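It is worth pausing here to work through a concrete case rather than discussing structure prediction in the abstract. The textbook approach is simple: state the sequence, then state the predicted structure, then interpret. We follow exactly that order.
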Amino acid sequence: MNTSEYEVQILKELNQTIELIAEDEADNLVDRIARANKIFVAGAGRSGLMIRAFAMRMMQMGIEAYVVGETVTPNMGKDDLLIIGSGSGETKSLVPMAKKANSLGGTVAMITISPESTIGKIADLTVKLPGSPKDQAGSGYETIQPMGALFEQNLLVFCDAVILKLMDNKNLDSKAMYDRHANLE
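Step two, the predicted structure:
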């Protein structure tokens, strides 16, 4: 296959899987984001990169959003929301974070392939995204892509769709968001 044929196959996989996301789960996450005082996001590896992009878009909307582990991240309180992006829901660094957020009275949301996972059981709400786990064994999704790429792509597309829904709810457009875009670059 040439590069464009791979791209077509990747888009086909995304089209097949993105339609399987439960709208009520997505709406529940949008509602929780809208009601939260502060939003915290966490993830590891490539999933962590996707969830960081989500935090940046929320900040550009004027939502108080932070990436866990950054030096400027404040403390979490009971009216706050932690959103964890993890395909497996078993990432060793994220499990204690979910437990800690829970003990602080915050809400934990999980975006994952595996809502029945350790973090999924801790979470107050989960959004199940279709995708293949890194080992791909028994996932039920055919993919030509390596490891967890299908989940990570679905995570980015899903988070962008959540941003669009939030923008619609707040009557915001890209111009308003661009005014909050970084300008020291």
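Step three, interpretation. The beta strands are 39-43, 65-67, 81-85, 107-112, 125-128. The chain has one domain: 3-70+79-176.
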